[in-house]
Write a structure and sequence with these properties.
Elements: H1 19-22, E1 35-36, H2 40-44, E2 52-55, H3 65-74, E3 79-82, H4 93-98, E4 102-107, H5 114-121, E5 126-129, H6 132-143, E6 148-151, H7 158-161, E7 165-168, E8 174-177, E9 183-186, E10 189-195, E11 199-210, E12 215-216, H8 225-229, E13 232-243, E14 262-265, H9 282-285, H10 292-304, E15 313-316, H11 320-323, E16 335-338, E17 342-345, E18 368-374, H12 377-385, E19 391-394, E20 398-400, E21 405-406, E22 409-410, E23 414-415, H13 421-426, E24 431-435, E25 447-448, E26 463-465, E27 469-474, E28 477-483, H14 489-495, E29 501-508
Parallel strand pairs: 1-14, 2-3, 2-11, 3-4, 4-5, 11-13, 13-14, 15-16, 15-19, 19-24, 20-25, 24-26, 28-29
Antiparallel strand pairs: 6-10, 7-8, 9-10, 11-12, 16-17, 17-18, 20-21, 22-23, 26-27, 27-28
Length: 512
């Protein structure tokens, strides 16, 4: 055993912590301690062109604003960036896209970043679209030294079968396509193999760091930041505040210092919010007449709310599905989970309650109810993939009579990404309910014999709710079990692109 004088540093807590005392004792080499630097430029000075970067955040929540600005100034190019999405056109990673500093994005969601979508479809940017939960688990696995794993997510889709466009040619043909994934069957279920992800540098945003380099995060700004800290050769954390050793209790630390190599305190934070969504006082909204489209959506979501059960855990997709939470009965408790890292979603905030570190998966501002919890993206999808969420409600572009679902891209025309949908619909034991308008614009069928668009999941849908009625999908096929009072069976048949059964006890469409 080495004598104590050969050690350089042991961080320990006393009632009044002192860095000078802490540095006197050690079981590790001081050379490996995190560096506290003065600026983003100092922290990034050895990031070369061609690097692979893991960049934390979800939407604009929890993004490393100062480090991204530092990359802009550095001019590093041909970067491969692993991030759930790429910010917006004029903020976050969107700034690096605008300057053509990124060669390839590995993401789950394009979203509303028009420049991201334009560069991808024009062949100016390589994009490896990956299901959100798979992306989080690939990063977690990489950081844990696990080279690959099997997941049920995306079996039977382009992610599994290969051929998903990574890069387009100028004429719209595919220059680079994804490769087929290995598949295996375990206990009667099909799985595909995904490889772990590691990077040269991780750029993350934390709330606080102590002077030992331990990190804590704030609310839903935890997201992808946590697993990314562990999956890079060098993790650079920007923080809002640096505190003394001991100011963060050991059992409250989210990321131990072993994962952190460099720390900077951010100069300033804009903390831009993509979708500031406020609660509406009842007296402001009750007398306003609803448009025909709004009445149709309300009819659909009021029926969807009938699927809630007291005490259940549910995940509601972006848009119409989220509206179903407005109709949860007062005498019922439903625990709403959002895949960006919150269990216990509350109503939209008042203006005074808006918090940029508290959003839902649709990037909307939200509140949290008493008893709620926050967690990282990999933890969130462990809940989902593990079957702990009993109900998921989401939208669709197309649903086939056998339960196949398509809702994430129109090849060569529109690419929003799959986000967390492929993970949500692949979870064993989770009831999958689709809410959508019965037909597309122009009357095109959305309920079909077979989906013509790339699949989100195979045989995964249990129920379809439209303004015309309710269908179940079982081993007996597609069956109409409820019909809206304002339509008739002939109209439903004409609006549906496949044959379906009609329940012997066909009922009027329920509403809450």
């Amino acid at each position: 055993m080495l004598p104590l004088q050969h050690s350089s540093r042991l961080l320990w807590s006393v009632k009044k912590p002192s860095l000078e005392i802490a540095r006197c004792l050690s079981t590790t080499n001081y050379l490996f301690a995190p560096q506290f630097l003065n600026s983003a430029e100092d922290a990034l000075k050895d990031v070369p062109s061609g690097s692979k970067l893991l960049v934390g955040g979800f939407g604009l929540c929890g993004i490393p604003e100062n480090l991204i600005s530092g990359l802009l100034k550095s001019g590093a190019k041909d970067l491969t960036v692993v991030s759930n999405n790429a910010g917006v056109d004029d903020f976050g990673l969107g700034l690096l896209l605008k300057e053509r500093q990124i060669k390839r994005m590995i993401s789950s969601y394009v979203g509303e970043n028009a420049e991201f979508e334009r560069q991808y479809l024009k062949g100016e940017l390589e994009v490896e679209l990956t299901p959100q939960g798979t992306l989080a688990e690939r990063i977690r696995a990489g950081g844990a030294g696990i080279p690959a794993f099997f997941t049920p997510t995306a079996y039977g889709t382009l992610v599994h079968e290969g051929g998903s466009p990574i890069k387009y040619n100028n004429d719209g043909t595919i220059a680079i396509h994804s490769k087929r994934r290995e598949e295996r069957n375990f206990n009667g279920r099909n799985y595909i193999m995904e490889e772990g992800i590691t990077g040269d540098f991780a750029l993350v945003k934390a709330w606080k760091a102590d002077k030992a380099g331990n990190l804590i995060f704030n609310k839903t700004a935890m997201n992808f930041n946590l697993p990314m800290c562990k999956a890079a050769k060098i993790t650079i954390a920007e923080v809002e505040e640096i505190v003394e050793i001991g100011d963060i209790a050991p059992d409250q630390i989210h990321i131990p210092s072993i994962y952190v190599q460099r720390v900077i305190q951010g100069d300033m934070y804009e903390k831009r919010i993509e979708r500031v969504t406020l609660s509406q006082p009842k007296e402001d909204s009750s007398d306003k007449p609803l448009s025909a489209a709004a009445k149709m959506r309300e009819k659909i979501v009021r029926r969807a709310a009938c699927e809630f059960q007291d005490g259940m855990y549910a995940n509601l997709g972006i848009g119409m599905p989220m509206l179903a939470s407005n109709f949860i009965p007062d005498n019922m408790t439903v625990h709403l989970q959002s895949e960006n890292g919150i269990l216990g979603l509350g109503p939209f905030p008042t203006r005074d309650e808006v918090d940029p570190d508290l959003i839902n998966a649709g990037k909307q501002t939200v509140t949290a109810i008493p008893g709620s919890s926050y967690f990282s993206s990999d933890e969130s999808f462990a809940m989902i993939r593990g079957g702990h969420v009993q109900l998921t409600i989401l939208g669709a572009m197309q649903v086939a009579k056998n339960g196949d679902l398509a809702n994430w891209m129109i090849p060569g025309k529109m690419v929003k990404g799959m986000g967390g949908a492929m993970d949500l619909v692949a979870a064993a034991g989770t009831k999958v309910v689709v809410t959508m308008e019965h037909t597309a614009k122009g009357g095109a069928h959305k309920i079909l014999e077979n989906c013509s668009l790339p699949l989100t999941g195979k045989g995964c849908v249990d129920m379809i709710i439209t303004e015309m009625g309710v269908f179940t999908i079982t081993d007996k096929g597609l069956t109409l079990i409820e019909i809206d009072q304002d339509t008739n069976l002939e109209a439903v048949r004409a609006a549906t692109g496949c044959k379906f059964n009609v329940a012997d006890d066909l009922k009027p469409m329920q509403q809450l």
